[in-house]
Write a structure and sequence with these properties.
about 30% helix; about 475 residues; MurCDEF_pg_biosynth; ATP-binding; UDP-N-acetylmuramoyl-L-alanine:D-glutamate ligase; alpha/beta; Protein-Tyrosine Phosphatase, Chain A; cell cycle; UDP-N-acetylmuramate:L-alanyl-gamma-D-glutamyl-meso-diaminopimelate ligase; six-stranded mixed sheet; about 25% strand; Rossmann fold; ten-stranded mixed sheet
């Protein structure tokens, strides 16, 4: 049964699956409201485990019905939690009050505020972080613009993934993944946006969506929630996006590189710092600079600029915010620089994300050898539905190391990605590729081969066996002078 809003008084609220990016953020938001917050997970890993501990919330590991003693006033069931989880079974057996993350966010934080939702298959976290920083910079001139936000990652300008203020704007990353075991609709349908950004629409989340048409239906439903007085900023380089916004009741402003785009990017200059001009209806709006590589990040920044401008943020604040943006944890994040070897962490979850990440690194590190290390971990990458696209994306690298499919036994053999086939196809295409079991094996085998100037891109949407620390340590050992 769904519990009443926790807003009535301070309560003990327990989160099952607390180390998910949004769940950890919700934990902090609830704690800030004066509630006592506890949470559990199967395993905790950075950056969200670090954020939780910094707030004084120690994740309980692993799941155990004893974590529900004494009984909390309300239990938030994460969307990764399914029947059979020992804590969920205890909640149901004991008829404890429970709800979903998305429903509680709406009831606790979005009422009487202005929800601005960033959604799409790619770029949500970065774009939401950009939008939040734009509002933060603009609030120096206009305090009413100080943003509340909820981001699916740690925004480095803030050092956190969330903030709750008394002001109206509330910026949210809107996820199309399902809400909970008892609510199979997308989480973003709970947010009822006043305005929104739609970045891309592609087939993803193959564990819950049968095909692209089902994905498009979810986004069409979100578009249908935006009021007539609202606004939708939508990417102008995708037929899927065009289909999803075709029946919007609110004004739609398209952004992209087309001459006809309402918001048009032009004169793009690639590099570690991207520069371009942004035109609004053919007239110069601003000359923009972003300390991030890749056309995809320039598009993300332009979308954030477009939405903010339409909500009354001045161009000067937008220019200053983009110039001082510090990215997001696990988005092209440099984790180590050792003897000229650069190790980069990126939250790859889809072949398109892999392609854009590797293209951006090519632009940022021209002339340097690029090694891609991929863990097929997301529910889409673990399946063979995009096997050809995975091969094509990885082929951008000079060398590829592929880990075994994460928890492959949970994917039916007929649907499972075949890493050996991916490696074989890459080798046939002239891209040296190797299949190695796990983080320890990869670190031990790869580190001695690396040379000064190499760029290693670690691609995974999970902990990947702590390879982000193990590989740099192995590189240090390999690079140290050998004892005579």
């Amino acid at each position: 049964m769904v519990g009443e809003s926790a807003a009535t008084k301070a309560k003990h609220i327990h989160l099952i699956g607390v180390c998910g990016t949004a769940m950890a953020s919700l934990a902090g938001m609830l704690q800030g409201q004066g509630h006592r917050v506890t949470g559990s997970d199967a395993a905790a890993y950075p950056p969200m485990s670090d954020q939780l501990r910094a707030m004084g919330i120690e994740p309980m590991q692993p799941y155990d019905a004893a974590h529900l003693e004494p009984a909390p006033d309300l239990v938030v069931v994460g969307n990764a939690i399914s029947r059979g989880n020992v804590e969920l079974e205890a909640v149901l057996d004991r008829r404890l009050s429970f709800t979903s993350m998305a429903a509680l966010i709406h009831d606790e934080f979005l009422r009487n505020r202005e929800p601005l939702v960033v959604t799409g298959t790619h770029g949500k976290t970065t774009t939401t972080s950009l939008l939040a920083w734009i509002y933060e910079v603009a609030s120096q001139k206009n305090p009413a613009l100080a943003p509340s936000f909820l981001i699916g990652g740690v925004a480095e300008n803030f050092g956190t993934s969330f903030a709750v203020r008394e002001t109206k704007p509330f910026l949210l990353e809107g996820d199309e993944y399902d809400t909970a075991f008892f609510d199979k609709g997308p989480k973003f349908l709970h947010y009822f946006p006043d305005a929104a950004i739609l970045t891309h629409v592609e087939f993803d989340h193959a564990d819950i969506y049968k095909d692209l048409d089902q994905v498009k239906t979810a986004f069409k439903r979100l578009v249908n929630l935006i009021p007539r007085r609202g606004r939708l900023v939508a990417f102008d380089g995708s037929e899927n996006v065009s289909e999803c916004v075709a029946k919007a009741f609110c004004p739609v402003e398209r952004y992209g590189f087309k001459d006809s785009s309402f918001w048009r990017l032009t004169d793009f200059q690639a590099g570690p710092v991207s520069r371009w001009k942004l035109l609004r209806q053919g007239k110069l709006f601003a000359e923009l600079e972003l300390p991030m590589a890749g056309e995809h990040n320039a598009l993300n920044a332009s979308a954030a600029a477009a939405l903010a401008a339409g909500q009354g943020v001045d161009a000067a604040s937008i220019v200053e915010a983009l110039k001082t943006f510090r990215s997001v944890k696990r988005r092209l994040e440099v984790r180590a620089e050792i003897n000229g070897i650069t190790v980069i962490d990126d939250f790859a979850h889809h072949p398109t994300a892999i392609r854009e990440t590797l293209r951006a690194l090519r632009g940022s590190y021209p002339g340097r050898r690029l090694i891609a290390v991929l863990e097929p971990r997301s529910n889409t990458l673990r399946r063979n539905v995009f096997e050809r696209e995975v091969i094509e994306s990885l082929a951008i690298a000079d060398r590829v190391v592929l880990a075994e499919v994460y928890q492959s036994e949970s994917i039916p053999p007929a649907e499972r990605l075949h890493p050996a086939a991916v490696v074989g196809a890459l080798n046939l295409a002239g891209v040296p590729a190797q299949l190695l079991a796990d983080a320890d094996t990869i670190s031990a085998a790869l580190a001695p081969e690396l040379q000064s100037g190499d760029v290693v891109a670690i691609l995974s949407n999970g902990g990947f066996g702590d390879i982000y620390n193990k590989l740099p340590r192995a590189i240090e050992v390999s690079s140290s002078p050998k004892a005579s």
